[in-house]
Amino acid sequence: MEALSLLVGQAEQAFAAARTPAELEDAKARFLGKSGAVTMQLKQLATLVADEKKTRGAEINAAKQQVEFLLGQRRQALADAELAQQLRTESLDVSLPGRHRGTGGLHPITLAAQRIEAIFGSMGFDVADGPEIETDWYSFTALNNPENHPARSMQDTFYVDVNDGEGRPLNLRPHTSPMQIRYAQAHARKHAGADPMPEIRVIAPGRTYRVDSDATHSPMFHQVEGLWVGENISFKDLKAVYLRFIRTFFETDDLRIRFRPSYFPFTEPSAEIDMMFGSGPLQGRWLEVSGSGQVHPQVIRNMGLDAERCIGFAFGSGVDRLAMLRYGVSDLRLFFEGDLRFLTQFK
Ligand code: DAH
User: Fold this and answer.
1) The last residue of a domain, from among 57, 89, 121
2) Residues with Cβ within 6 A of ligand 1?
3) pTM for this entry
4) CA-CA distance, 84 to 88, in Å (whole number)?
5) Could you tell me the distance, in angstroms and rounded to a whole number, from the CA of residue 271 to the centre of ligand 1?
6) Which residue's alpha carbon is at the smallest distance from atom 12 of ligand 1?
7) 154 lies in the same domain as 214
8) Residue 277 scores a pLDDT above 90
């Protein structure tokens, strides 16, 4: 009996000393294997008489069960420790940023154009879209540009090596003003015979092109044309509409505009529109944002309208300029370089 409990104690120590499952199996062999200590005890039973065999056998079996129980415990403990170790070393770092597909965003110029469309839309303006490759007539002649006007020269306007059918090359439109003519013509055709003709109230944002490149000029840039023609549309409507637009665009009433006399062949009188913030980093500086004027009667006629009855205003504003002012961008070229470090700031 003494010997048996000693044996169980030895087994317990041996199992505890085993650091790995392999070591534990070695220890098991020493007690429960073919010539293990417990097995040897059982073998010695044969030398006993029947009576003693029975009690001694039961004692040895109890000891054997204890040893087996201790072995099972140690096996489980080693397996748990191994799992814990695995979890520690092969751990999944859930704080690591995942691999995600980049999400796109709208370009700041698109964002600015959308704002412009929404604001003029709220004032009843239609939004129109037209060709970027234009004929000489739409870009210049219809807009009352004299034959020798510098805008027509190769230094300002990009020409395409394709004839417009009247002996003149097509151009990349140098402004959105041709859209005044295209839209008004379509409007006049659509409402032919209507008296009075419904008003024309439209903006036409889009890409424009000029031979020019520096921090504030890009060969491709954006304008938004505006046109409001009716029977009694005057300069004061232009002032009210433009002031409302610019204050909404910049989300401040602390902003003034002024109309500075100017010249455009397609308007008479003509004016540059300047704006000035009443506060902020650009406070107190007049910033030019648009050309404008009362549509010239010859242009009204070129639209296919009656210049005796139709009168109105037009303007052409730089979308890039407005976007630069709104987002505080100092170099126009940043908009068109496609650098994601810049573009993702607008998402
Ligand atoms: N087309 C002119 C430009 O690109 C801008 C402009 C001026 C447009 C006066 C207009 C206008 O509609 O009335 O410089």
Assistant:
1) 89
2) 175, 177, 225, 264, 267, 291-293, 314-316
3) 0.73
4) 6
5) 9
6) 315
7) yes
8) yes
